Amino acid sequence: MIVQRAHGLPATGWVDYNTWVALGLPADQWTSIDSYVAPLGAGAGASRQDHIEAMIRQAYQYMGKPWLAGCSSSPAYGVDCSGLVMQALYAGGINPTSCSSIYHGFPGNEWNSRNLFADPHFMNVSYNDRQRGDLVFYYQPGTHTIWHVAIYLGNNQVIESWPPRVVVQPIVNGQRNVIAGIRRVFA
Predict the structure, then answer these.
(1) What 8-state DSSP symbol labels residue 78?
(2) What is the pLDDT of residue 70?
(3) With contact defined as beta carbons under 8 Å apart, do 170 and 154 qualify?
(4) Mean pLDDT of the residues in the chain
């Protein structure tokens, strides 16, 4: 809102086109940064494991890239947690009907981890039955509000986008330690 006020724009807190330009970001990226959909990484005849590995390969393309709130872009820019998962799902051959890369940054869509958690296409599995490629959802501490999603890699590790960048972390750590549930994408 400070940038908006400094440039005589309505102080909404939302990044619209004029705010984007006021931030010094390239005007041509306004329509391209969140229009990216990762290419399919496993064909129709591929095995379940091939689809999981395609999903994880896509997620690794973002390693070290910045966490960007409300962003589901190409690996050139960065992503937030649900943006990372959406792009990985696209590469694995899943188009999550509960959310969209293109609308991810729009008001009301900034918490797509909640939409993914509630997606009826993903199977609920117990924490003890988690497998590589499952989605791990976290509650905000002290609440029952879903606020984060990561991809389980195995060996109690996840790949996730968390400020300031995309990293591999232990599934339970000091910042994200209340697991809401595990969802299996490829049942």
Answers:
(1) -
(2) 81
(3) no
(4) 88
CB atoms within 10 A of CB 47: 10
Q: Is 93 left (phi over 0), alpha (psi -120 to 50) or beta?
A: left
Q: Each residue of 105-132: pLDDT tens digit?
A: 666 666 789 989 999 999 999 999 999 9
Closest among 98, 97, 76, 73 to 87, alpha carbons compared: 73
| 30: three-class secondary structure by DSSP | coil
- Tokens 């390969």 map to which residue? 57
pTM: 0.83
Residue 61 corresponds to which tokens in the numbers above? 């393309």
* Tens-place pLDDT, residues 2-41: 778 888 988 877 667 787 788 777 777 666 666 788 999 9
**Which tokens belong to 139?**
């509650």
Q: What is the DSSP letter of 39?
A: P
DSSP designation for 162: E
Q: Which two tokens stand for residue 109?
A: 């869509």
Separation between Cα atoms, residue 86 and residue 80, nearest integer Å: 10
Which two three-digit tokens encode residue 105? 């940054």
Q: Give me 108's structure tokens.
A: 């009301």
Apex CA 152: angle with CA 69 and CA 148, to 5°? 30
Spell out the residues 6+ positions from residue 174 whose beta carbon is closer than 8 angstroms to its own.
none
Q: Degrees (nearest 5) of the Cα angle 164, 37, 184?
A: 75
